[in-house]
């Protein structure tokens, strides 16, 4: 809200000519990626003014920090502050195109076997429609658990299997405590299943330490270590990696990209590969419903690459935010087209999650 108010105030301080020059510079840059010169602008302005007059206006806008000159006499490009002002005060969001909606709708059909597959298809369609890299943060599976089983796979490998009340099954390989025995594994299985009582995995993880301490005489240390290490695997960073679906990285590579732009894209790829602090991706959306746009350094997840992120949360049937969808790419995104695409996709995924919960 403060950003919108600041944008409105600054736009009010610009006269009509400055506002039009600024808007046309940004729109041309977003379309072509090239600096915009004064002679180019004189051909499209609503009033007949000289190139010299336009240059003076552009110098004023540069002084305000809204435009920048990448090279001497090479025209102007918007700064990050300029792009923010444009997005908050001048951006015209287009209606969702029918062909874009149909392409996204086609990914979520009745024959989709499970939510994870559906979200993977949504991510692929989103990157295909926008020609950017799509990010889909899948929800954690929070159905009540029906049964947990520990299975030995060898001296230093074991499997923990979770069977949910809705029939969903997940399993993870983990390192059991040294010297574990089949009897310790059976004891751990019996102990934890006695505590389940229709709880979700989050509930169990929250209660388990207290229960082990409280009922220490009922379970030996080896079995308690088995329980704790088996459940801890769901807090491992790999679980977060599995939740973030990234599609369309290759869309960001263009043969005509400048060397410095390719370096930024490489940095972005490195960030996406690490997928660190994925929880922050969801935090970006927690200030309310709807699409949010993060430009360049505003984007704390991928700020080093100078990328823009257009992201929207989606909710479950209880109106709780459980995930997010977004598009990431260079700051020269077609925001007016991408915003309604991301918004529609988030609503579609929310309905998918609610229908299948």
UniProtKB/TrEMBL annotation:
The Heat-inducible transcription repressor HrcA C-terminal domain covers 118-339
Coiled-coil positions: none
The processes (GO biological process) annotated in the record are:
negative regulation of DNA-templated transcription
Family annotation (Pfam families)? HrcA
Q: Does the keyword DNA damage apply?
A: no
User: Is the keyword Transcription regulation in the record?
Assistant: yes
Please list the GO terms describing molecular function: DNA binding
What the entry lists under InterPro entries is as follows: GAF-like_dom_sf, HrcA, HrcA_C, WH-like_DNA-bd_sf, WH_DNA-bd_sf, WHTH_transcript_rep_HrcA_IDD
Q: Which UniProt keywords apply?
A: Repressor, Stress response, Transcription, Transcription regulation
Its biological function? Negative regulator of class I heat shock genes (grpE-dnaK-dnaJ and groELS operons). Prevents heat-shock induction of these operons.
What protein family is recorded?
Answer: Belongs to the HrcA family.
This chain's protein is named Heat-inducible transcription repressor HrcA
């Amino acid at each position: 809200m403060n950003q919108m108010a600041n944008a409105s105030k600054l736009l009010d301080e610009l006269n009509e000519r400055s506002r039009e020059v600024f808007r046309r510079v940004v729109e041309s840059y977003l379309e072509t990626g090239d600096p915009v010169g004064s002679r180019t602008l004189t051909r499209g302005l609503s009033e007949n003014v000289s190139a010299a007059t336009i240059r003076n206006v552009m110098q004023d806008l540069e002084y305000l920090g809204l435009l920048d000159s990448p090279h001497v006499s090479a025209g102007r490009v918007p700064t990050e502050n300029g792009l923010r002002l444009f997005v908050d005060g001048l951006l015209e969001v287009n209606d969702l195109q029918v062909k874009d909606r149909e392409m996204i709708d086609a990914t979520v059909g009745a024959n989709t076997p499970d939510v994870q597959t559906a979200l993977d298809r949504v991510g692929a369609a989103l990157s295909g429609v926008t020609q950017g890299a799509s990010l889909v943060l899948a929800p954690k599976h929070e159905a009540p658990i029906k049964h947990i089983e520990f299975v030995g796979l060898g001296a230093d490998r074991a499997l923990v299997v979770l069977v949910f009340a809705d029939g969903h099954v997940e399993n993870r390989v983990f390192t059991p405590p040294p010297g574990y025995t089949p009897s310790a594994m059976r004891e751990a299985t019996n102990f934890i299943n006695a505590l389940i009582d229709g709880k979700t995995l989050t509930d169990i993880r929250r209660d388990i330490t207290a229960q082990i301490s409280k009922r220490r005489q009922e379970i030996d240390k080896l079995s308690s270590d088995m329980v704790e290490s088996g459940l801890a695997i769901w807090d491992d960073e790999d679980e977060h990696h599995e939740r973030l679906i990234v599609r369309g990285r290759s869309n960001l590579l263009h043969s005509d990209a400048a060397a410095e732009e390719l370096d930024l894209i490489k940095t972005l790829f490195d960030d996406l590969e690490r997928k660190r602090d994925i929880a922050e991706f969801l935090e970006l959306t927690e200030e309310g419903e709807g699409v949010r746009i993060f430009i360049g350094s505003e984007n704390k997840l991928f700020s080093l690459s100078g990328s823009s992120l257009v992201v929207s949360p989606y909710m479950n049937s209880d109106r709780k935010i459980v995930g997010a969808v977004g598009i990431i790419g260079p700051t020269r995104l077609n925001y007016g087209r991408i915003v309604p695409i991301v918004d529609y996709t988030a609503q579609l995924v929310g309905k998918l999650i609610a229908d299948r919960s």
